[in-house]
Structure formats: structure tokens, C-alpha cells
């Protein structure tokens, strides 16, 4: 089947009805990396090339799966939700970036703990009521208060 684009009668292919939904992940759950992190451990990995450094930074802010014990009681999402809303294995794809001259920054913790791809003021007053200058009322900023399917992310 096809889907009319409205651009001069051109048509674009539509995925077949047997195609998997976009958010569905086909991941071998047995091989997932450990999702634990010790108190005081860094929430990201930073590798800077020893030689041949370039001005390139490879950033992987949503590969982390860990929910530290210190914040676990406040996080209401299940392991399946953490997996669904992460960029599984993207950190593995780019792990050798430093060998090629690029600096490499990858999250270890889930975006449900801290979304490292956000500005410091990207918070909403419902999540951080005492923030001196919140950017707006978006439910997904530095701290997510709702999941991608609209359910509460925090207790």
C-alpha cells in the first residue's frame, strides 16, 4: 500500500501492517548490560583521546540503564520502561571514538534519573518547585516526571 503525500500526487511507501511498532525493541534481554551503579560512582563515562585529538565530541546521553539505589524509591518506572526509552547499545557502537581522535561522553544512568541532554534550567515547577528560574512546564527536562507513554515517572 502507499500513502499520498499531497506533494504533486507523489506517493510514499507505507510500512506494511506486519511491521513492528517503532517503539518495540527486539533485544536479547539476557545480554543487557548491568544496570546497577554504586553510590558516588560517576553517572557518565568521559574518554579523551591520548593522541590525535580532534574537535569532535561523540555524545551518547541516553544509553544509560542504571537507576542508583539512592534514587530508586523516587523512580516509578519499570525496567522495561527504562529499556524502551533508552538508546540501547549506542554506547557500544561509539565506544572506540577516543581511539579515532574524538572525545567520547556516554551516560551510565537512565534518562529517568537525569537526562544529560538537557540544559540546567530545563525543568518544570511541578518537578523542581524550588528551582530559581525554571524554563517552562514541560514534563521531560533534566528530570522526567512522565514517561514517553504519559504515565508518572516519579513517586
Task: Characterize the structure shown.
With 155 residues, this protein is mainly beta. It has a domain at 41-107. The chain is built from two helices and five strands. The strands form two sheets. It has a three-stranded mixed β-sheet, with no helix packed on it. A two-stranded antiparallel ribbon has the order 1-2. A hairpin with a 6-residue loop joins strand 1 and strand 2 (11-13). The longest helix is centred in the middle third of the chain and has 6 residues, at 79-84. Residues 1-34 have low confidence and may be disordered.
Question: Could you give the topology of this structure?
Answer:
Layout: E1 2-4, E2 11-13, E3 44-47, E4 57-60, H1 79-84, H2 90-93, E5 103-107
Distance between the termini: 44 Å
Query: How many distinct beta strands?
Result: 5
Give the strand line-up of the largest sheet. Answer: 3-5-4
Helical proportion, percent range? under 10%
| Mean of residue pLDDT values | 76
Amino acid at each position: 500500500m502507499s500513502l499520498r503525500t499531497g506533494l504533486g500526487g507523489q506517493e510514499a511507501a507505507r510500512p506494511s501492517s506486519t511491521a513492528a511498532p517503532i517503539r518495540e525493541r527486539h533485544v536479547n534481554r539476557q545480554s543487557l548490560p548491568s544496570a546497577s551503579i554504586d553510590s558516588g560512582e560517576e553517572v557518565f563515562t568521559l574518554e579523551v583521546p591520548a593522541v590525535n585529538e580532534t574537535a569532535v565530541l561523540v555524545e551518547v546521553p541516553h544509553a544509560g540503564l542504571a537507576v542508583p539505589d539512592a534514587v530508586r524509591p523516587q523512580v516509578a518506572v519499570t525496567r522495561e520502561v527504562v529499556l524502551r526509552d533508552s538508546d540501547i547499545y549506542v554506547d557500544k557502537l561509539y565506544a572506540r571514538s577516543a581511539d579515532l581522535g574524538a572525545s567520547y561522553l556516554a551516560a551510565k544512568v537512565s534518562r529517568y534519573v537525569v537526562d544529560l541532554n538537557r540544559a540546567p534550567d530545563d525543568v518544570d515547577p511541578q518537578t523542581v518547585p524550588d528551582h530559581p528560574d525554571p524554563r517552562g512546564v514541560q514534563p521531560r527536562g533534566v528530570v522526567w516526571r512522565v514517561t514517553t507513554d504519559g504515565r508518572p515517572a516519579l513517586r
